[in-house]
Structure formats: structure tokens, C-alpha cells
């Protein structure tokens, strides 16, 4: 599945407000999802809900045959992406 498809699920899960400040950056071979965030505050808020987010993402992704093992939140990559 593509990052764009996973981003659609991300928006459904976190809502439009949070998805304006965060997006799926990639998924590693060992099923770790990287979410880039606009700043450390957003990253921290999402981190506090990481277990719930993994559960919801896995519900959405199971029909695609993907299972997320972990989520990493990175706010430094956001600035690199926006340049």
C-alpha cells in the first residue's frame, strides 16, 4: 500500500485538525510507522496516545495485510519536507 493510502487512514483517525500538523512519512520493513509532525508539542500529544493510535491504524490496515508494530513521531523531518 502507498503512503498516500495510509495517510487517508491517518486523517480519519486523528481528524482534520491534527492531520494538518502531522502526516505519515513512511513505514519500515519491520512495520514501524514514522509520523512527521509540525512541532514537538504535536509529536508529544500523539506519543501520549501511541497505543490507541497503533490499535486504530491496525484496524484500518488489517484488510490491506499490514500490521503496525510501533509508531515513531519525528518533528525534525517536517521542516526538511516543507523546504
Which percent range describes the beta-strand content?
A: 15-25%
Helix-strand category: alpha+beta
* Low-confidence region ranges: none
Mean pLDDT: 93
**Oligomeric state of the chains?**
single chain
Q: Distance between the terminal alpha carbons, to the nearest Å? A: 26 Å
User: Can you summarize the main beta sheet?
Assistant: 3 strands, mixed
SSE string? HEEHHEH
* Residue share in helix: 40-55%
Instruction: Please state the overall shape, judged from the principal axes of the Cα atoms.
Output: globular
- The total of helices stands at 4
- Biggest sheet strand order reads 1-2-3
| Structural Rg | 12 Å
Q: Count of DSSP E strands?
A: 3
Description:
The chain is α+β, with helices and mostly antiparallel strands and 83 residues long. Helices cover 54% and strands 20% of the residues. It is built from 4 helices and 3 strands; from the N terminus they run αββααβα. It has helices at residues 3-19, 40-48, 50-61, 76-82, and strands at 22-27, 32-37, 70-74. The protein has a 3-stranded mixed sheet. Strand 1 and strand 2 form a beta hairpin. The radius of gyration is 12 Å and the shape is globular. The relative contact order is 0.21.
